[in-house]
Design goal:
Length: about 250
Amino acid sequence: MAELSLNGPAGVLVKTTCVDYPGIVAGSFFLKGCNLRCPYCYNTGLVIETEQPEQLNTVQELFDHMEKRQGILSGIVISGGEPLINPYTPLIIKKAKELSYKVKLDTNGTLPEKLELFLNDKDLRPDFVAMDFKTSPNRYASTMCPSSSNLFGKTDFFEKKVLKCIELVSSLSPDSREWRTVIVPGLVTKDDIKTMGSYLPKDASWQFAQFMNGNCIDKSYNTLTPYTDAELNDLINYAKTLIPGAELR
């Protein structure tokens, strides 16, 4: 297998963030590539090869930044896209650990086998895992899977994958995990929240975000009206009755 080049366009570097890693000042690297096509996703250039961002950073640029900011930043967030399918992810984790950074891994929650490999490897195990929980597990196959995929519509397949990922993330200590949900009208309803909440541990940190109707992969979502503040608060207050650690980020 050819050695990976550190100098090719690989992702988007955010040099400093105070919001992506709970309680830690970090840098973030958003890697290319994803196995899903969530219609509301705004990282279009990272997911669709033909729509790459104008400026992509190299892994070498990330490493240089990590070395330069060592002692100032405390953590590195590896996001995407979906980092579990990106060959650079193991290299980044090992480099971060070498430099004594804490590592947060963001995942879309559909690749339990890959996630388990990382969690069981002391050299690759992240310090924090954030799992996207997009809607009811039985809706992934028809709403998040690319329509061109041979997995499109395979409800049982995706449901099992999502639930296994929830199980894996639940096995981590409460201060090293969270679940994230974008509240998209039509995709996340009160019924969906009821279903989703039934699968999470009671001590879960369940972080909600408002849907933003701009630059969505599915262009029809650019004209979709977000929930009003009152509707949003109603949904989050309902989620709190199921999972006390639910909140709007």
